C-alpha cells in the first residue's frame, strides 16, 4: 500500500468485454491522470478495441516493484490477471467470457486486500450474461462482499451508495426482487446498514457528523399504519434506538417527498429501502456523472453509474463522465483513509 504522499494506485476493471467498459478505459488512458491506473484485464481486449476506436494506446505490464506514478496520455499499465475465452465483439454478449469477467474482479479485489493497489474502480458488467453462463451473480456489490469474507466469519454486509453533486443515496437492500424486499428489511439488517452508512460517510467520505434522511418502505411511510406496517414494526424502533445513540437520523419519511430540495439541503445522504426507490431519482439528477461506492467492506471500491450500453460499444460515443468521477472519488477516499 502506498504512503500518504504517494500517488494513488488504482486498479481499473473494464467489466463486460462486449460493452463500453473497454472503450472507457481506453478513453481514460488518453488523458493525463493524477493517479496511476492499472487495467486488470486481458490486454488483447484493449489493443483490439483501441484499434477499432482508432485511438493510440501503449500498454505496459504493471510492475509492483516500481513506485506509483501518475498515468500519462496514451499509455496504460495492465495486469493480465485473466484471459478472454473468446475474442470480444463489441455489442455482442458471449457467455463464454463470463468467467473471465469474474476473474478480473477477483484479481482486482484481492489486490486491494493484499495492498497491491489502493482501491479498485469498476466498469460495468452484464449481470444477465454471467447468470446465463451458469454463474450466480447479482452485482459487484454482493460479489465483492463475498470475496472479502474472512475464513470462519460471516460475509460482511455491503452498502451501495451512489453520489452525484447535490445528492447521495444509499440502499438498504440491493439487487433483490421487489417481492422479497419487505421481508429482507429486518431490525438487525436495518441497524447494520445505518451503522455502516454513518461510519462510511465519516471515515471514507470525510463527513464528521452525517445527517441522514431515511425513507419509509410504504406509500406515505405507511400513513400511520394504514398503508403498511413495516414502518411501525421495524423502521421506527431501529431509528429511535440509533437516534438515542446520537446519530443524526430523520425518518421514516415518505419517499415521494424526501427528495424535495429543501429537505435535501438539510441532509448529507438519503437511505432508500430498495434499488428503484432511490436510484431513479439519483440517475435523473446525475446520470453519466454519478459514482457508485461500496461501503462496509475492508476495500475501497467505486464504479460507474451506468451499465454496459451494448448499443454504443465500440462506437466512440460512450461518455467518460462517470468513470472520471469514479476515479476521482476513489483517489479522494484513499487520501481520506490514509
Ligand atoms: N456498474 C455496473 O456494473 C452496472 C450498472 C448499471 C447497470 N448494469 C448492467 O448493464 C446492463 C445494461 O443495463 P441498462 O440497459 O439498464 O443500462 P445502460 O446504462 O447500459 O444503458 C442505458 C442507456 O444509457 C446509455 N448509456 C449508458 N452509459 C452510457 C455512457 N457512458 N455514455 C453514453 N451513453 C450511455 C445506453 O446507451 C442506453 O441508451 C444490465 O445487465 C445491467 O445490470 C451494470
Ligand atoms: N445498482 C447499480 C446501478 O443501478 O447503477 C448497478 O446495478 C451496479 O451494481 P454493482 O456495483 O453492485 O454491480
TrEMBL record:
Main location as per UniProt: cytoplasm
SUPFAM superfamilies recorded: Isocitrate/Isopropylmalate dehydrogenase-like
Subcellular localization: Cytoplasm
InterPro entries xrefs: PdxA, PdxA_fam
Keywords, sorted A to Z: Cobalt, Cytoplasm, Magnesium, Metal-binding, NAD, NADP, Oxidoreductase, Pyridoxine biosynthesis, Zinc
A GO CC term assigned to this protein in UniProt: cytoplasm
A GO term for molecular function: NAD binding
Name of the protein this chain belongs to: 4-hydroxythreonine-4-phosphate dehydrogenase
Function of the molecule: Catalyzes the NAD(P)-dependent oxidation of 4-(phosphooxy)-L-threonine (HTP) into 2-amino-3-oxo-4-(phosphooxy)butyric acid which spontaneously decarboxylates to form 3-amino-2-oxopropyl phosphate (AHAP).
Class of this enzyme: oxidoreductase
EC number(s) per entry: 1.1.1.262
Originating organism: Lamprobacter modestohalophilus
Lineage summary: Bacteria, Pseudomonadati, Pseudomonadota, Gammaproteobacteria, Chromatiales
Amino acid at each position: 500500500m502506498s504512503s500518504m504522499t504517494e500517488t494513488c494506485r488504482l486498479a481499473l476493471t473494464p467489466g463486460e468485454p462486449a460493452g463500453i467498459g473497454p472503450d472507457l478505459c481506453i478513453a481514460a488512458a488518453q488523458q493525463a491522470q493524477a493517479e496511476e491506473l492499472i487495467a486488470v484485464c486481458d490486454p488483447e481486449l484493449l489493443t483490439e478495441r483501441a484499434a477499432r476506436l482508432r485511438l493510440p494506446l501503449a500498454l505496459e505490464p504493471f510492475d509492483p516493484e516500481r513506485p506509483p506514478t501518475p498515468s500519462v496520455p496514451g499509455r496504460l499499465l495492465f495486469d493480465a490477471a485473466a484471459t478472454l475465452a473468446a475474442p470480444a465483439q463489441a455489442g455482442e454478449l458471449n457467455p463464454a467470457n463470463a468467467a473471465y469477467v469474474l476473474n478480473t474482479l477477483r484479481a482486482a479485489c484481492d489486490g486491494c486486500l493484499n495492498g497491491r493497489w489502493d482501491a479498485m474502480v469498476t466498469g460495468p458488467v452484464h449481470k444477465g450474461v454471467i447468470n446465463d453462463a451458469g454463474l450466480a451473480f447479482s452485482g459487484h456489490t454482493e460479489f465483492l462482499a463475498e470475496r472479502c469474507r474472512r475464513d470462519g466469519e460471516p460475509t460482511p454486509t455491503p452498502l451501495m451508495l451512489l453520489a452525484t453533486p447535490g445528492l447521495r443515496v444509499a440502499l438498504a437492500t440491493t439487487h433483490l426482487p421487489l417481492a422479497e424486499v419487505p421481508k429482507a428489511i429486518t431490525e438487525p439488517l436495518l441497524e447494520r446498514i445505518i451503522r455502516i452508512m454513518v461510519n462510511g460517510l465519516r471515515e471514507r467520505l470525510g463527513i464528521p457528523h452525517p445527517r441522514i434522511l431515511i425513507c419509509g418502505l410504504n406509500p406515505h411511510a405507511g400513513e400511520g399504519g394504514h398503508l403498511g406496517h413495516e414502518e411501525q414494526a421495524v423502521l421506527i424502533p431501529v431509528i429511535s434506538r440509533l437516534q438515542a445513540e446520537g446519530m443524526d437520523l430523520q425518518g421514516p419519511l415518505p419517499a415521494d417527498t424526501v427528495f424535495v430540495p429543501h429537505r435535501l439541503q438539510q441532509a448529507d445522504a438519503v437511505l432508500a429501502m430498495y434499488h428503484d426507490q432511490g436510484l431513479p431519482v439519483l440517475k435523473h439528477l446525475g446520470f453519466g456523472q454519478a459514482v457508485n461506492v461500496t461501503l462496509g467492506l475492508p476495500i475501497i471500491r467505486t464504479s460507474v453509474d451506468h451499465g454496459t450500453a451494448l448499443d454504443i460499444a465500440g462506437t466512440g460515443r460512450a461518455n467518460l463522465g462517470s468513470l472520471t468521477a469514479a476515479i476521482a472519488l476513489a483517489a479522494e477516499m484513499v487520501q481520506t483513509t490514509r
